[in-house]
């Protein structure tokens, strides 16, 4: 029975964690139109930095890594988020000032590959191909939990973190800032012609999204206690894309649905299924194919996702305005324009000239 | 220097001075020394045959393209090759030849996004000054609804902009520019592809803008409209300024007739 709950709460953890990751990618891609194919690199950096600051000094251990501050949770997690943001600043200055759409995407994929090779091969950074392990359990000194109890506990912690981050993200996307992000997504030239400094807003979006990526990555290493390059192959970015495309780009509820379907049900649930007799590991490959097919089907049949971006309706501020559609009110007082011109307006102007 | 304030609409002198600007694409000189002034609080038409460089000039003035040589001043400010969002913040707004609505936003949101500097675009204000945001958003909402009412788009306010017809998109683009409170509004063929009744309406809106102190520079092929609403005309041919003046005067100008008006006169009455 304890095993069952271990599985269930592992799935719950990944549901919430990928919800956080999906929110981060969504603000970049879904809201601002930045095709960040290096997203998994930001997740990985968040994970590594969270792990490296949580661990004690590497001197005298079998691992090699920088930092080693013994930093407690949640500060270690915040460090991971901030590290991903710092990388976002560098990446944004390299890419966003000059590149757009497909060219931007290609450069970001390249940067992701470069980062992967550097971390994989420069062992002194984050222990190379072996990655970090033996990362201390968060708040272990406080609660002394068994490993099963820890899974339940940390899945709940991740749920609370996801809830807070959902609240923050909703505030941002519903604000005029979110509206400007979506204007830039729809047409950066028009946004620029309206006085919006496109790079500044894209940078802001990159920073927010990368912070979410870093936190999501940090939670992964805090949950499992280890993280290595096999966990963030550059193709993993497309899993997060699948989450937001299946769930619904530009809709936070859709992201939760996407995280449930893609990450929880399609990726992690099959990992707990027994192997097909005579074909060990086959399920994993079938799983990858199912995700690919799901992505294609969604893009063909329902590109807006299962829960599409909603139309933002505004409450009309006064009763007078509410009745306008019924043509039952007087012409409004207009401070910038006179009342609606009629077809005779130009003729009247001609008369003045004459 | 702050870029958040419009150039003064009340000052003396032309609002825009364009001195010998050039722009080449490969070997083609699209703009080849165009020089003109746009008088303040007037409606000026920019006319010329196809390929004369009119849209390129608008792109150069608004910062969408880089000027090769020459100078542009908006009021007393040199805006030559300034970043386009900074030019916009100085009060120079534009529309596009083919309407470019923000398709994923509603009609109302297209207007709400237009005010150049909004407190709600700052993360700090979103979380720490919610009342300021609410106040600003309410003001913008009221103003946007009034403008939509004026432009006959009020009932469509919650529709996605991508769902509008061609004529409605033209109106949306102009109303969005008005929402941004321009000092100088560049309109790139605002009457193109719209029905005669809407042409009349748009003409009326442009006259209203002038009455509100907005200077308009519009590319227009419909000489009937130009004659009726424009105070001044700039004729562009082969990237150069051929002549400036009132249309009635330009009809007497042999060069202008040969380069542009002749085509239209020979083609029959203006539309």
Describe this structure as you would to a colleague.
The complex is a heterodimer of chains A (354) and B (271). Chain A has 354 residues and is mainly alpha-helical. Chain A folds into two domains: 2-234, no CATH class; 319-353, no CATH class. Chain A is built from 15 helices and no strands. Mean pLDDT of chain A is 87; it is low at 324-343. Chain B has a six-stranded mixed sheet, with helices on both faces. In chain B, strands 2-1-4-5 form a four-stranded antiparallel sheet, with helices on one face. Chain B starts with 15 loop residues before the first strand and ends with a helix. Chain B is globular. In chain B, helix 5 (130-150) packs across helix 6. The chains are: A mainly alpha (354), B alpha/beta (271). Chains A and B meet through helix 7, helix 8, helix 9, helix 10 and helix 15 of A and helix 2, helix 3, helix 4, helix 5 and helix 7 of B.
Strand composition percent of chain A: under 5%
Order of H and E elements of chain A: HHHHHHHHHHHHHHH
Per DSSP E runs of 2 or more residues, the count of β-strands of chain A stands at 0
| CATH C-level class of the largest domain in chain B | Alpha Beta
Order of helices and strands of chain B, N to C?
EEEHEEHEHHHHEHEHEEHH
Largest binding interface between chains: A-B, 56 and 69 residues
**Radius of gyration of chain B from CA coordinates:** 19 Å
Euclidean distance between termini CA atoms of chain A: 93 Å
Low-confidence segments of chain A, ≥5 residues, pLDDT <50?
A: 324-343
Describe the main β-sheet of chain B briefly: 6 strands, mixed
End-to-end C-alpha gap of chain B: 46 Å
- State the fourth-level CATH superfamily of the largest domain in chain B: P-loop containing nucleotide triphosphate hydrolases
Our Rg estimate of chain A from Cα atoms comes to 25 Å
Strand-pairing-aware structural class of chain A: mainly alpha
Counting DSSP H or I runs of 4 or more residues, the number of helices of chain A is 15
Helix content of chain A: 55-70%
Number of distinct helices of chain B: 10
